[in-house]
Every structure is written in structure tokens, then in C-alpha cells.
Amino acid sequence: MEDGLVDFLVMVRGCAVITLRILDIYQGSEMFDSLTSEAIYTRILPLLPLTTCCDAEMLDISILTLEGIQPLLVTGSDRITYQAILNIYRGLQHSARRGFIALSEIYNSWVRIGSQEFMEFLDPGNHVSRMLLLHFVAITVMMWPVFCILRPSMLETPMADLACRQWGVDIYQNLPSEMRELVEWQAGYIASGGDIANAIKTSNSVLEM
What we know:
Distance between the termini: 18 Å
Protein name: C6 transcription factor
Radius of gyration: 17 Å
Keywords: Membrane, Transmembrane, Transmembrane helix
Number of domains: 1
Organism: Penicillium desertorum
Shape: globular
Largest sheet: none
């Protein structure tokens, strides 16, 4: 599968699982207060704007294309991830802050999926999950300005050097041709590094590769 993507997603889910177990065992312990969602939101959310960070038309297109995948959902993992991604798009329509909250919830949603089922979700042959993950990668690109607010040093990393761009291209190119059209806009947006104007033009060139 796309180099590093499975490792990243397994790590993220694992961190969430471990954090929840720690909080469950040490409820009331001041040592682990900083791991609670409330503590994280108290520190992070005030840094994020209450205005949107994304183009409205871009989010409309994203939701419309995501809804095109809905009839193909089969497993619980598919449905959980689909709803989490939809919530992120809707959150971003309101503000960067609400989008960030929704993004954090997608990691929590994966905790509710059993380990075996989650690995099946990540299987390269699961084309429905591939399309959902392409949306996830597109969201990562969309929210890059938000991440840079939280960690300004990220501004020093050129968009072209981000691993998520290659993840997106690889996912798209490994999809069956009949499924590519469902996520063509996302592929173009990722490949263009978040350049909305060039997203469709870039997706056409990616499709021809």
C-alpha cells in the first residue's frame, strides 16, 4: 500500500486506544489531566479562528463527491469513516475550529472499530475504503493552514514535499478506472497541492498516468 499511510493510520488509532485506556485506569489523576479532550480543546481551540479556512465551493464539491460513494458502503468501518469525513466537511463549512474538532473525532471513531476489522478496512484491495481515505488525505491538505497555526515550523515544509500528496496520487492510480471518477476532484486537488483552480486540470493529468 501507499508508503507510510498504513503505518500512520495504525499509529494514530493505537495512540487513541492507549490514551483512552490510560484515562480509564487513572481517572481523577492529575498526572493525566492533559490527555483529556477537554484539556486539549482548552489549549488548542482558542488558537484557531472562528472563521472558515476553506473555499465554500470546494467544500460543496467535496460533500457532493463524498455522497457519491455512499451507495457503495458495505461495512461498519466504511459507514463510520464516511460519517466522520462528512462531519469534518460540515465543520469546515462553519469554521476552522469546528473542522478541527471534527477531525479529532475521526481518530476516536476508529477506536470503536475492532483491530481486525480496522486492518481489513486498510486492505489495499478494499476500494471503497481507498476512496474514503483519499477524502481523508484531501482534508489533510485543506487543513494545512490550520496545522501551521498550531505548529508554525510546518510552514518551512514545502507542500510538494508532504508525504500525503504521494499517498493521494498512489491511492488514485491504484483504483479501478470505474471508481476513479468518483474521487477525481480529490486526486486533482491533492496533486495540485491544494490549488483549487488547478485541481480539475491536475486530476485529468493524474488520470492519464
